[in-house]
Amino acid sequence: MASSPCGDGNFDCGLQIQTRSVEQTLIPLVSQITTLINHKDKLKKTEKTLRAVQRVGQAVSVAVGRFVAVGEAIAAENEDLKDEMGLACFEARRAGTAIAQLTDVSSLEQCEGDGRSTVFSDRTGMVKAARMLLSSVTKVLVLADCIVIKQIISSRNKVLVTLEQLERVSTFQEFVQIFSQFGNEMVEFAHLTGDRQNDLKDEKKRARMAAARAVLEKCTMMLLTASKTCLRHPDCESARINKEAVFQRMRLALEQVIEIVTDTRSGGEARALPVSIYAGIKDFKVKVEGLRDSLYCVSCEAVAALLEALMEKTEDFTDSAYTSHEQRETIIQLCQITRQETKQLINTWRHAQSLKAKEATDEMELSILKTCQSVSDLRRELHRVAVGRATELLKLHSDHLVLQALKASGGDGNLEAVADYAGTLNEHKEQLVETCRLLCHISGTEPLEITCIHAEETFRVIGPQIISAAQTLALHPTSKIAKENLDVFCEAWESQLCDIAILLKEINDVFEGRRGDKKTYLSLPRPGKHSANLKTVKAAKLDAEEQTTIAKLGLELCLLTSDVDSEVERWDEQDHEMVRLCQIISSMAYSMYLFTRGEGLLKTTLDLFHQAEVRQHSFSLIGFLIESVRSLLDEDRILILSETEKLSDACQQLQVCAKTPVQGKSAIFQKVDSSIQNTKGILTVVVYLLPICYKLIRKCKSECSCVASPQHWREKQLNTTVSEETLNGNGSNGFGVKSLEQHMASLTFLESK
User: Can you give the pLDDT at residue 650?
Assistant: First the structure.
């Protein structure tokens, strides 16, 4: 596409565009305007050319008129933006009128005979009008986007007020009433922030928003049970500490959301991520390889300083008590090799400079290659150490023995045993925190670094909360609420371990150049305490022949997940709802494939059945497809609905299979086989649907004019109504609202023991 009249490709004309919706709204307008401006200077003026120019000019003018009408309506509804929005709308209307006049060239006689300025004779006037139009339209969109930000802030403020009321309640009846209001407010906030997360252009902001929303999702359930425990045992110090930690974490997460959407920090300055080893190596290699283009682009001292900063960060690995002696020696040796190669490079570099060389000499080129190779070898070793450590820890903690021991000791009222197991949990917490820090160093992308930091903070906070919940149970061993509270915190710990397993796969994908850097925030489902078949199926090990059969099925499943990933990568909008849901379904299927290889977190058939039972993402995809086909033509709608029906059947069959209790080795094998076969059926339909939906979406976009549908954009961005479906927990961006409602239903059953 030709260059923008504004002089660059960002279309912002001096205004910072933070969201994709604003940018996508502007792109067709820019395309049409550049068509008018970037014509050949000696364009042959045929009747066909003139009609085309006039048609484009009129389309722009009409679309601007409709767009301005919406902008003026927004201004009337928002008094504080009325003046700015009104001025921007006035300028947009004036620019649209100017473009219409300059393109009013319906005939050759009119174009050449009346001496009036046209797009052919007054190119400067056309460029000026185009710049004014883009600037004013962008300003209207950015101002409208400010209203969305105001809605999020307003929603956050309502949540904060209710949160303070919840913290002060003293009776259970009052708590039930206020928590009901709080739940509805959190649903609204979840949807507003979910839409904002998907709309943000900046990957780091999207990752930070995902982390903050994950905290809010988990803390909502913790807040409920921690508050119930405090009300039931008001004089219990450990219960009070447990509750206060939850409220504090929720406030911090709410504050982080506002920092992201307003692009500010309460402390004044933006918080910079700690520089990881991966980022340091990347920067170092860029500087070294840049010497091929210029020997004077950077100083020798600067390169040496970069290397030393990098070497200092490797101490996080070598100083760790959990790094083996062999690993430590290997890292130190690779650091020494990198230092030596860099020293040799600097010597040859200085020699080339002394000879007034204009480009790198052959000797220097060889040093550049050796230096980059040595630092790449160091990165590979650090990656191997960090991923190996994380994998070992996940295997070590997969049985959750410490959590089970804490629950049992608390239920027995054994404070001494709780203290012993609390010490063990603290050790595990420190191991996991340090491992997350090492993973952050080698993660490979800034969004994954943010996810590692979030995981580190989660383990650091949840560990002490589990201990305080266990202490409360030990003090009140007959309390059902205290037991329920401990269960919730233990589930949060287990959930975070599952997230680490997904994170590990994404980090490996990035390292190997695969799909990991494009994935959104995911978390594996985990067996919950309400699982239907939790006590009816015993774990079973398969014999060699059965494992071979399952391994073949697993390989077919893996190939299908690769097909899904390939189709997903074709999509322009990687944060599209369908892409997000398909990625999650693919990731869950991949964990089943890992099970067939004896890897991953699914260790036994029981784990596999628990995973198969949780299919909410598949049903969310079905709901999304049914909702999306309403505006399609009959032929397209019938095709999508037909495939959606197949998807629904496969999901139901898988869920029925997973919930059906079985006994005996042969029956369990058949159930494993059926679970994987049904999952293959789901992925087969997903692979078929992805390219069809992609083509339909592109077709719909191509049929839309530049800003011909501002009302749709406005409704999408500014709609604050929370539907009945949303309140029932069916929305895709909620914080586990169905689970919240299940807890709400049990609020009135506060035990009297």
Answer: 83
Residue 401, token pair as written in the block: 């023995």
Which tops the pLDDT comparison, 70 or 340? 340
Residues in the chain, total? 753
Integer Cα distance of 189 and 258 in angstroms: 11
Predicted confidence (pLDDT) at residue 500 exceeds the cutoff of 50: yes
- Give the span between the Cα atoms of 242 and 407, in whole angstroms: 16
Tell me which of 63 and 224 has the higher pLDDT.
224
Residue 740 — very low, low, confident or very high, per pLDDT cuts 50/70/90? very low
Nearest-angstrom CA–CA distance, 719 and 195: 11
Q: What is the DSSP string of 657-681?
A: HHHS---SHHHHHHHHHHHHHHHHH
Provide CB contacts within 8 A for 19, sequence distance 6+.
145, 196, 199, 200, 201
- β-strand partners of 200: 19
Interacting residues of 533 by C-beta distance below 8 A, sequence separation 6+: 609, 613, 658, 659, 660, 661
User: Which residue shows structure tokens 């039931």?
Assistant: 232
Q: Where does 522-572 show beta strands of DSSP type E?
A: none
Residue with tokens 């447990």: 242
Residue 270 buriedness (CB in 10 A; 0-12 / 13-18 / 19+): exposed
Q: Where are the alpha helices (DSSP H) in 443-543?
A: 446-475, 480-511
In this structure, what token pair is assigned to residue 426? 């603290």
CB–CB of 152/212 below 8 Å? Answer: no
Q: What percent of the chain has pLDDT over 70?
A: 77
Which two structure tokens, joined as six digits, stand for 49?
Answer: 């050319």
Neighbours of 555 (CB within 10 A): 13
- Quote the CA–CA distance of 43 and 64 in Å, as a whole number: 27
Hey, what are 259's tokens?
Answer: 């920092």
Q: How far apart are CA 455 and CA 471, in angstroms?
A: 24
Does the structure show a pLDDT above 90 at 456?
yes
Task: List pLDDT tens digits, range 360-378.
Answer: 888 888 999 999 999 999 9
CB burial of 225-236 (b: ≥16 within 10 Å; e: otherwise) equals bbbbbbbbbeeb
- Which residue intervals of 263-361 are DSSP H helices? 277-289, 300-313, 315-318, 325-354
pLDDT tens digits, one per residue of 579-613: 888 888 888 888 887 777 776 667 677 777 777 76
Beta bridge partners of 311: none
Q: Compute and round to an integer the Cα radius of gyration of the chain.
A: 30
Q: Which amino acid type is present at position 255?
A: E
Closest CA to 95 of 136, 66, 59, 55: 136
Distance in angstroms between the alpha carbons of the first and the last residue of the chain: 73
Q: How far apart are CA 8 and CA 1, in angstroms?
A: 12
The pLDDT score that the predictor gives to residue 538 is 43
Task: Return d(Cα 191, Cα 186) in angstroms, integer.
Answer: 9
Question: pLDDT tens-digit profile of 271-284?
Answer: 556 688 988 999 99
Contact criterion met (CB below 8 Å) for 92 and 130? no
